[in-house]
Amino acid sequence: MSPAEHAPRPLVDQSVLNRLREELEEDEGYCRLFVGNFIEYLPHRIGRLRLALTTGDLEGAVDAVLSLKTSSQMVGAERLANLAMDLEGEIRSESGRANVAVLLPQLAAAFLRPINQCSRQTMHRLQSQCSPGAKR
Asked: Is residue 133 within 8 Å of residue 28, measured between CB atoms?
């Protein structure tokens, strides 16, 4: 599946945020802390992924893509999580058959731009959904 096929998926699944709020038994605090931490750390996660892919670091790439996928799933960032899942699938399925020093930079070329675009959109959406007065 190509990164472009994710356009129809929602950026953020509000039900995940609602469930998170219920589990944390808080009203607005979860947005400022949990989601805020996700937003703050997202550029670092993507930077780690970029570095690992472009330098052919297989272990680093797997670790970075799993971090991105899991953290995205936890805040309901569906489209971003699915891009990360697709990238993880490509890494896992192709790394045994291809030279990772060639494969990983190719995957960087295919996935990093859509991941960057999606991450910016996701951050904006999360910020708007978690701002005071945002509809739930």
From this structure: no
pLDDT of residue 34: 83
Helix 78-94 / helix 58-74 crossing angle, nearest 10 deg = 150
Structure token digits, residue 63: 């670790």
In total, the chain counts a number of residues equal to: 136
Structure tokens at 27: 């009203």
What pLDDT is recorded for position 6? Answer: 45
Cα-Cα-Cα-Cα dihedral of 38, 39, 43, 48, to 10°? 0
pLDDT for 135 beyond 50: no
Asked whether the beta carbons of 126 and 41 are under 8 A apart, the reply is no
CB 62 within 8 A of CB 81: no
- What sign results for the dihedral spanned by CA atoms 114, 104, 52, 62? positive
User: For 95, how many CA atoms within 13 A lie in the half-sphere containing its CB?
Assistant: 18
Residue 48 is predicted with a pLDDT of 98
Looking at residues 47-73, what average pLDDT do you find? 98
